[in-house]
Design a protein that fits this description.
The protein has one domain: Methane Monooxygenase Hydroxylase, Chain G, domain 1. Helix content is about 90%, strand content about 0%. The protein has 3 helices and no strands. α2 runs antiparallel to α3.
């Protein structure tokens, strides 16, 4: 355990940020899984709605710094490609 007051505070702050990042990543994975399930089921309308939700969640995670903006962009592109393959 840290003895210095500022080090104790840094530990507390890190724990809070870690929990917040875990929450954002977990919800992001859930939204992407819902999209994947809609695509696997062949439900185009549900997949379109899920893609919008997934894109929004990816942008939100990137803006919070949980994931890199290029990673968010890459995932959105791949999800859109899956939807386009389903509709084509």
């Amino acid at each position: 355990m840290a003895n210095i007051k500022s080090a104790v505070k840094r530990i507390r702050v890190t724990q809070v940020k870690t929990l917040r990042n875990k929450m954002v990543k977990s919800s992001l994975k859930t939204v992407i899984k819902k999209f994947e399930a809609a695509v696997a089921g062949g439900n185009v309308e549900e997949a379109k709605v899920a893609l919008v939700n997934a894109s929004k969640a990816l942008d939100m995670a990137a803006s919070k710094g949980v994931i890199h903006k290029n990673m968010a962009s890459r995932k959105k592109s791949r999800l859109a490609a899956k939807l386009n393959a389903l509709t084509a």
